[in-house]
């Protein structure tokens, strides 16, 4: 191994075999090394860029984080890692001509490292990793996580919140009401004589009935803080934050009437001809002391009373 240029050639061959982009700059920011990886992704040979200022080859880097990283390395001897989330693709690099035509850059992780050179001013090495695959996989995972999360919180039949979602939400809203000194109301909503409906029309039509009632409830409870959930088989629950007992009663009555408006036929003899609901209300007043479990059991007791009093009605239970 003799001259510097022989050594540079060997180095360039080694760098050419690497599956990473490598650029070496001299102290004047001129390109000294440019490997095959770079040539393939820019369409520019090592010869065509050798000796050029990095910013003459990539004018768009001017004023960018990559330019600052090179200056830091050459002048201050500081290495830099360009965060992938902030600088997705600083260099115009393309996996193929088709990707270049679409303007679809390779996703990059860029590292700039100062290099001490004997007998010369400091150089720097820019390494560019293609992280497109990893970024794509990450995006896919994130999307799948979102889908899974929405499935774990949604009821499979009706699409509204499920019991697990309800259990978490009631605790959260209870804490919020206690902290904020505001009322919190809970409605328990149960379809009347649903066993008879199922027995008469069959389970699949029973499912359709549940879907229609759930959709009507969801359409009525539209404030972002409200939550309507499927609590059990044919029972629904609605959490109404910042809602006092009078407002809760109005909402419960509106739901009862809306269900009748759906005009879903029920077999004759069972509470008239149409599907109806009974509702139980419990309200935790602004200065109340009841916990979430107390609120739920009071709403349950109210629902039981509405059923006992003849169904298709609303009942409320006072909270201790
Ligand atoms: N189709 C269908 N039926 C269900 C589902 N979950 C529960 N049910 C039915 O809902 C019915 C509930 O019946 P009960 O608890 O006896 O109450 P009910 O007949 O509605 O009477 P009251 O509540 O007293 O008015 C049962 O027949 C269950 O099989 C479901 O996902 N789909």
From TrEMBL:
SUPFAM superfamilies: Nucleotide cyclase, PYP-like sensor domain (PAS domain). One of its GO terms (molecular function) is diguanylate cyclase activity. Residues 182-319 form the GGDEF domain. It catalyses: 2 GTP = 3',3'-c-di-GMP + 2 diphosphate. Residues 7-77 form the PAS domain. One of its GO terms (biological process) is negative regulation of bacterial-type flagellum-dependent cell motility. Its EC number is 2.7.7.65. It comes from the Bacteria. Pfam families: GGDEF, PAS. It is an enzyme of class 2 (transferase). One of its GO terms (cellular component) is plasma membrane. This is diguanylate cyclase. It comes from Rugamonas apoptosis.
